[in-house]
Amino acid sequence: MNISELAAPFQVTRPTIREYMTLLSRIFLLDVLPPWHSNRIKRLVKTPKLHIGDTGLACALLGLEAEALRRDRELFGRLLESFVYQELRRLAGWREETVSFFHFRDKDKDEVDVVLEIGGRVAGVEVKAASTVREEDFKGLAKLREAAGKKFTAGVVFYDGEAVAPFGRNLYAVPLSALWENY
Question: How buried is residue 122: exposed, middle or buried, by Cβ count under 10 Å (0-12/13-18/19+)?
Answer without folding.
Answer: buried
